[in-house]
Amino acid sequence: MTEKDISDSRLIQLLQGEEDTARGALTMLYLRYAPRVRELAQCILHDSDEALDVAHDVFMAVWQHRSVLEGVVSPSAYLFRMTRNAVLNRLKHRRIVDDYASQPFDTISPYDPAATFSTREMAAMIRAAIAGMTPLRRKIFLMSRSRGMTYQQIAEAVGVSHKTVQYHIGIALKELRKVLSALMLFI
Q1: Which residues, 6 or more positions from 162, have their beta carbon under 8 angstroms from its beta carbon?
Q2: CB 8 within 8 A of CB 14
Q3: Which pLDDT value is given to residue 112?
Q4: Per residue in 114-140, pLDDT tens?
């Protein structure tokens, strides 16, 4: 029996078995899904090292929680959710660091736990991708999509050329398509 012959559900069962068997199952699961996990994380975080860290964290968590995986029907969906959560946690951490770094020392207040990300998976990932854009690109994209402004109106408001607006919208849409295609790997 080859690696491809073992179903995802069988891998979950094997993960709960003896340690040697479980290690082999984790290796197979890793080989099967790590590239998808890394690609999804990379699309959102725009940092290949951080994406690799997310992949390692996700599979380390699978190993640590292997005894409670019996209810997992779809490893693909389970890994997608774990990746999404790990990426959102990293983005949250970035935001906290950026907030603290931008405040004078004497005005730093405790992090507001009410400011959390939405739990709607696709919307959260799209918002995260938009948040990961450069400030100018994000501003231009949101003026176009949220406010419905024309390229010429945006160019005048921001003080750039029509071609610059067109360029930034094109790149923003390309980044969002990458995120959506990475999400489709888990569906």
Answers
A1: 151, 152, 155
A2: no
A3: 42
A4: 333 333 567 778 888 888 889 999 999
Residue 24 sits at the vertex; the CA angle it makes with 55 and 9, to the nearest 5 degrees, is: 80
Q: Under the phi-then-psi rule, with left for phi > 0, alpha for psi from -120 to 50, and beta for the rest, what region is 163?
A: alpha
CA dist 96 and 106 (Å) reads 16
User: First vs last Cα of the chain: how many Å apart?
Assistant: 26
Q: Which amino acid is at 126?
A: I
By C-alpha distance, which of 71, 95, 94 is closest to 81? 71
Exposure letters 73-108 (e unless 16+ CB within 10 A, then b): eebbebbbebbbbbbbebbeeeeeeeeeeeeeeeee
- The span from the CA of 87 to the CA of 84, in Å, is 5
- C-alpha 117/C-alpha 121 separation (Å) is 10
The values of phi and psi at residue 46, to 5°, are: 55, 35
Q: Which two tokens stand for residue 128?
A: 């995260």
The model's confidence at residue 83, banded by pLDDT at 50, 70 and 90, is very high
Give the Cα separation of 83 and 99 in Å (integer): 24
